[in-house]
Amino acid sequence: MATVTVEVPDDAFAALRRSPKEFAQEMRIAAAIQWYHQGLISQGRAAEIAGLSRADFLDALFRAKVPACQVTVEELKEELESWQRLSGESSTPRSWPVDGNVREPGATEAREEAHAVTYGDHS
Known about the structure:
The chain has helices at about 10-15, 20-35, 45-50, 55-65, 75-85, 105-120. By secondary structure, it is mainly alpha-helical. It folds into 2 domains: about 10-65, no CATH class; about 75-120, no CATH class. The longest helix is centred in the N-terminal third of the chain and has 18 residues, at about 20-35.
């Protein structure tokens, strides 16, 4: 691993109530979070730079109020459309709302059958 030297005012450690070692660790985490947030590095690489496990890096992202998922809605839509083209699936998954109400496949039929059993309606 490479070593980087950063000059910091002598009183910075006292003001932050951190030892030089703690300060260096916080700098690594802050840099990794910033570079991840900017989309410059992956989550795995950021955890490595921060010197943390992936789970601990996710905790650090949460504390820093940085979203762990860096994918936009548009990117998700593009991925879904690409997958659908490759798999031959329809453009709207069956459980997505068409009119604002989420419907699972067969849900209407199941409700009608439950109604018939409950109320003796066998039409």
